[in-house]
Amino acid sequence: MLATNFLPSQVNPGGLTALIENLGRDCHPTQFLREFTKNAIEACQRTSDPKSRITIDFNSSLHEQHAIHKISFIDTGDGMDSEQMIRLLHNLSVSGDTKNTHKNYGVGAKISAMTRNHAGIQYESWKNGIGHAIFIKFDEKQGAYGLQGVPGSDGTSHYAIPLSEKDKPSEIADHGTRVTLWGMTDQQDTMVPPEGISGIRESWLALYLNSRFFNLPPKIEVSARIGYYRENNPRHNYLLSIKGQKEILDAKSMFKGATRLSEASIYWWVMPKGVDGHGRELLKGHTALINEDEIFDISDSRSNRVVYFGVMLGRDRVIIYVEPENVIQNTARTNLVRPDGSPVIWDKWQDEFRSNMPSELRNFLDQLQTESANESHTESIRERLNSIKELFKISRYRADLQGSLYADPSSQSSYPAGTERTGSKKLNPSPPQTTKPGAVTGKLSSALLTSLVEQSLGVTASSSQPNPFPIVKWVSASQNEQLTDRAAEFIQTENVILANSDFQGFLDLVKYFVKSYNDVAELIPIIEDEVKQAFEQILTECVAGALSLKNRQHWNPKDFEVAISKEALTTAVMQRYWMVSYIKRVLGNKIKNFNAQ
Prior knowledge:
The chain is an alpha+beta fold. The chain folds into four domains: 6-240, Histidine kinase-like ATPase, C-terminal domain (Heat Shock Protein 90); 245-371, Ribosomal Protein S5, domain 2 (2-Layer Sandwich), CATH 3.30.230; 395-461, no CATH class; 471-596, no CATH class. Helices cover 30% and strands 21% of the residues. Strands 1, 2, 3, 4, 5, 6, 9, 10, 11 and 12 form a ten-stranded mixed β-sheet that branches. Mean pLDDT is 80; it is low at 93-106, 275-280 and 394-465.
């Protein structure tokens, strides 16, 4: 493998090298795992064997001979002869069997791996009991990727090296392939996780494979090495069977289900709370896409999309996967796109699922809501704010210079241009004196007004909301870990503010006033109620104010998201002088009445 004979790829070496480097840079550091595993699966599917095997392990031969750990992928698939190996693996542009699910068979593996394995990628393959090996590497002198050859007895270079029976791994009988990655140097340990990759050294391979593949073919047994560096310790150094994410979720969930939408299928699971019997944290709530039994676009933690599917509480326990129709994998196989290459849009799936949520999941969420139920002061706060709602500029309608209507945001009515109405908002600076045909006057419902203005009656509706002031619901951070050390969260799709009853800033104020009134136990519920009402007032006004700024010329969507973020709402309720003054005044009157009873 260290001989000087070297055959660059049959394309301009400099141009090809630049192409490979650019494409490889776009691949995720773990992408090679998916590519080689997928190639192995397809190789196994091309055989008639009732049971095939794929093993992801270190190359045992290299470890015995040189005491180094190099990751290898062994499959009992159909294998390749020497001609196939050179044709498929030497030429970047060559595709494999056109009947394969992925038409660019082999290209993805080479691109994702070559830039991270300058020391070489070693292929050993057996077909009909005959084995050959080739070695792809980066030649520093020529600055090119290509085949490493060895000199033959006839003075020519050989690039497909015959293999003997003793070279064959024990997993392979008559046909199969082993691919070994050498990394950037001969001594590099390629079994360790790439830099910056989550997952411990012990089990990162299994973690990646189970989170990448939703289902694995039933007739193919896939296993990956756990604890490879623990020499002579079979309890912690072994091959773990890889089942795929669906089997894991089905086994560990409390209950699960599947729902058919108009253009997608949705799979959902509700996980138990806490840890398993071994003290390990259970799978957290997240969302993802599925295509051809692979998982894409996992969103968890703060980016968890389950809230947009109607899961406000328990989002750390609910997992939702969408299997959409009419999508394809992008070139790098890192995400799904529409056939024209544009990103997939989640909104339709989310809206449809919220409207048709399975009853078992709905009951679970209702139970969580009941467990955390606390009386809020939404109605009284709305009454107070309705008297000054014009100050929030709640009109959601944009001016149309050619329009012929006036719109009154307070009454949700529209009038022909030129008609004077007290308090109405003129939507065009110089309206014509005649109305367009079909112009409507009088009181309109919010939904009807939105429908009419969208029919080009002179006003463009960006949204229509029956009440501009959100509802406040009190929840515990233990039910919604997104609220840890945050005061509240605004759920736009539901027009609901989730206020955190465990937020320390809230508890500190309650404690302050309880002490101020000499720790009288009977007064604690009154104090808690008033502190909550003050928090709700600030949160409601903060969100309503942000909504009034949405879609303004100098407020882009990112600005708006920042304004309604959990951090912004938390900062808003941390004002103290007004809060303490207001609560002290209200409590003074209430406690005076309490003492008089």
